[in-house]
């Protein structure tokens, strides 16, 4: 099926191809490489789909004119160029399949240290209310997307909700799967099944069919909560396949999906997306100072505190930035280093689309 392309995807693909041009003049981080490969794969897939459609409609509409002769060279040329890009993978040191995560981001789990989380009370309550409500949409199972740029705190919010006592009491089964760049149906199913049965899947069950049948049996009539964390991309077909065993679950089961991409939410969400906002200035400062000064908001050095507050403001409510920069300046007595961070132009490049400060994804 032809997937709808949003402007943001076009932009993303464009960024991927631009990255290719730039690779000779700047070192490509793993993150950039994996995005590039993903973009190339998406482009190629779409061109092939488009080519098939053009061929089909040409035959239907102009059976006596062989329009495919006109189009084919164009498409073949594009495919050739894409092929060239894919073949550059050795130069770019790309590996088959995007197995690792973007540099600097570790896999996530459901565990969270709640005492170190600032704010998010309202967002947490709003989501819990939706999770505990049954039958709002008439669907047996609802999917709730949490959407926002990388480093904004989507995973953290999902963790807070997942560990709330009311939520734990409401659902019979809970499972957390860290999805990331590739939507690997088998791997996700294994994780979900492993959690609901408290078993690891490395012994007997290796094929998806057996896994799905077992998962379906286990979920039968039971209310479950699954979290699919950090979904970058998913197609309708992938989602249909993954979610088939879910249908046996109890009425009111929920799936939380955290994602940076609105189109992912559009494909699988059934409840209105929760668009996460930045932290308040106060909470952002608390987070920054906790990491910079050991104790939130407490420092013996007032001049450092003054600059720290300005850096905190420049984090624009992005927890990852506040945490990372606080950590960077921890135990740094030299005020010039603090000023350097404050006056760094890289702040102006805060990249809303791809989510993370360039300084952080290049680190
Ligand atoms: N409200 C918060 N208070 C304290 N730290 C936070 C908060 N939100 C996020 N963080 C921290 O910021 C970093 C990025 O958060 P994360 O939830 O992984 O973002 P996202 O999932 O949107 O990329 C993590 O290290 C997390 O611990
Ligand atoms: Mg996340």
From TrEMBL:
Taxonomic superkingdom: Eukaryota
Keywords associated with the record: Hydrolase, Membrane, Plant defense, Transmembrane, Transmembrane helix
TM ranges: 12-32
UniProt xrefs under SUPFAM superfamilies: P-loop containing nucleoside triphosphate hydrolases (SSF52540)
Biological process terms in GO annotation: defense response
Sequence ranges assigned to domain NB-ARC in this UniProt record: 122-295
Gene3D superfamilies: Helical domain of apoptotic protease-activating factors, P-loop containing nucleotide triphosphate hydrolases
Pfam families listed in its UniProt record: NB-ARC
MF terms (GO), sorted A to Z: ADP binding; hydrolase activity
Keyword Metal-binding on entry: no
Protein name: Putative P-loop containing nucleoside triphosphate hydrolase
């Amino acid at each position: 099926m032809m997937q709808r392309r949003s402007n943001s995807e076009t932009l993303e693909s464009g960024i991927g191809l631009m990255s290719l041009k730039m690779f000779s003049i700047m070192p490509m981080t793993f993150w950039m490489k994996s995005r590039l490969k993903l973009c190339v794969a998406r482009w190629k897939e779409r061109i092939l789909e488009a080519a098939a459609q053009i061929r089909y409609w040409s035959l239907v509409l102009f059976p006596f004119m062989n329009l495919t002769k006109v189009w084919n060279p164009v498409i073949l040329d594009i495919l050739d160029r894409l092929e060239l890009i894919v073949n550059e993978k050795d130069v770019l040191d790309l590996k088959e399949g995007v197995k690792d995560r973007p540099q600097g981001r570790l896999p996530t789990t459901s565990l969270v240290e709640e005492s170190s989380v600032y704010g998010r009370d309202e967002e947490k309550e709003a989501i819990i209310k939706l999770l505990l409500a049954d039958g709002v949409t008439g669907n047996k199972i609802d999917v709730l997307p949490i959407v926002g740029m990388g480093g904004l705190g989507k995973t953290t919010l999902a963790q807070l909700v997942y560990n709330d006592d009311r939520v734990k009491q409401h659902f019979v089964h809970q499972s957390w799967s860290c999805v990331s760049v590739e939507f690997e149906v088998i791997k996700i199913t294994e994780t979900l099944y492993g959690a609901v049965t408290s078993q690891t899947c490395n012994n007997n069950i290796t094929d998806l069919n057996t896994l799905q049948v077992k998962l379906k049996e286990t979920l039968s009539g039971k209310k479950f909560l699954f979290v699919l964390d950090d979904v970058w991309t998913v197609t309708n077909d992938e989602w249909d396949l993954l979610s088939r065993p879910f249908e046996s679950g109890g009425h009111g089961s929920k799936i939380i999906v955290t994602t940076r991409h609105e189109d992912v939410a559009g494909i699988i969400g059934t409840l209105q997306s929760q668009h996460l906002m930045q932290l308040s200035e106060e909470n952002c400062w608390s987070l920054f100072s906790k990491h910079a000064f050991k104790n939130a908001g407490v420092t013996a050095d007032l001049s450092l505190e003054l600059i720290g507050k300005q850096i905190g403001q420049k984090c624009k409510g992005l927890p990852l930035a506040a945490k990372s920069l606080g950590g960077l300046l921890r135990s740094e007595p030299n005020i010039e280093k603090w000023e350097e961070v404050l006056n760094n132009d890289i702040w102006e490049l805060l990249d809303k689309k791809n989510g993370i400060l360039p300084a952080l994804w290049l680190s």
